[in-house]
Task: structure prediction
Amino acid sequence: MKNFEIAKILYNISLYLEMEEEPFKPRAYEKAARSVEALTEDVSNIYKKGGIKALMEISGVGEHIAEKIEEMILTGKLEYYETLKKKIPVDIEGLTAIEGVGPKTVKTLYKKLKIKTVEQLEKIAKQGKISKLPNFGKKSEEDILSGIEFLKKNKGRFVLGHVLPQLKEIEEKLRKLPEVKKVDISGSTRRMKETIGDADILVVSDKPQKVMDFFTAMPDVMHIYGKGPTKSMVKLKNGLDADLRVIPEKSYGAALQYFTGNKDHNIALRKIAIEKGWKLNEYGIFDKHNKQMVGRREEEVYEKLGMKWIPPELRENTGEIQAAMKNKLPKLIGYNDLKGNLQIHTKWTDGTDSIKEMAEEAKKLGLEYIAITDHTKNLGFAGGLDERKLQQQKKEIEKINKEIRGITILSGAEVNILKNGSLDISNKALSELDVVGVSVHSNFNLPRSEQTNRIIKAIENEHIDILFHPTGRILQQREPYEVDIEKIIQAAKDTDTILEINASERMDLKDDHIRLAVNAGSKLIINSDAHNRNQIRFLEFGIAQARRGWAEARDVVNTRNLKRFLKMLKQ
Ligand code: DGT
Ligand code: CA
Ligand code: CA
Ligand code: ZN
Result:
């Protein structure tokens, strides 16, 4: 079993247990699921090497859950899960994916109206029967229907961070084949989009049949749509479609360019070729006698058209072509440029690992400093910290800093912005922390101007250094709240507050907003918002997002070393 399959079962168990109103177990299963899903190494591999003991070393996995994982690895299923499913046979995953629908709602809907699937729920909600249930009203019925609409919009797309490790693994398997000379994943994956529709893999090979045999027989494959000498199409077990194309070596660069896209970028390039009297397609650039001029290398395609090679993250036809022609492309922030990670959660609130474990992992990933930013008291469900606990935590951090080498831990907090823009922690307590972020975790439905002013009031506080996840969206889960982002970007600049690019599933700010912030000269920061140590690596996706927003290293404050970073905070 693959990590995502194990994680999914653990997560669904947490939903079933929550439905049964079990007190602590749901959180334990949820934490294990989140941790396994973020692991890069195969859990089956970990088990093969070190048995159940090694499983227990995975963040968030204790003895009981380790035994469950062992059973899944050995038998391909889990008796405990099968029993839970039989008791309440509903599509718990699909139904709870609807914003605002939790396991308890699912239970009520099943008990009262026999609803098992999202389709049934949609039908019954449209008939107006949900609003008639006790504790439900017209508003909750409307919310359910708009939640279902939002899900439909994302249907068939996959969060890049969820599928990239597996795609890279497939790429490496192909690279190791003696028949494969070159391999790349093109398409939206290469552009590092937040979500991808399907994976477009390209190879060069003299023995394409062998490559196709291997590709279609991989254990990752669930279904083969088609298999031919130059193109095969499969559905992977995680639901993602993947195409593999075999390309002649002399056209590889042109094919890589073409299949990386995006479509609008390609159309614009083709127009430039036509203006020069040439033809551009996935085989190369051809002159008026139909003779190939270039095509072997991607750089040559761009050069021939009179421009610098364009990093894939920028290829959206939003000005990158004009910039490349004038040699004015940004010097994008690099994937190894971050030195710090300033939003990290621990066991002190809703995280899974200790302060020290998070620091050790961050150090392993090459970071020089982190900030511990647990939730504050208004976030009851996360066990938010009050002033006294924050002070205790700061002492604990000081102690760990003396024991640990090679990384510095800063004290901090993720402070809640209350409805009126005030904060749930006293200024005095905040003044004692090294770095403080604020965020909105409640009242998502305020009118736009009220929401905007609420946030601006919060960042005007001299103790607040960072605005965390500024628009509140979560990929495929939650729409952003209504907010005047340009006004917030300006306020951030005026108040010297740093705007976060949150690299978790929030992916907030998004690329367009980052570009606005860069142009306005506001400071940015990329944080993982990790709730377990396996999630720290998600910084990669925040960097990708920053690149898609045209950000350079100088725009992002945590590319600086600790000393210089501290100087960029409000004094
Ligand atoms: P996705 O899969 O929806 O996340 O997005 P992409 O960008 O991977 O799109 P996909 O898989 O449909 O096609 C891969 C690339 O192939 C796309 O980025 C550009 C190129 N392409 C596809 N269709 C066309 C087309 O009609 N014209 C041109 N010029 N290029 C195309
Ligand atoms: Ca694609
Ligand atoms: Ca495709
Ligand atoms: Zn949290």
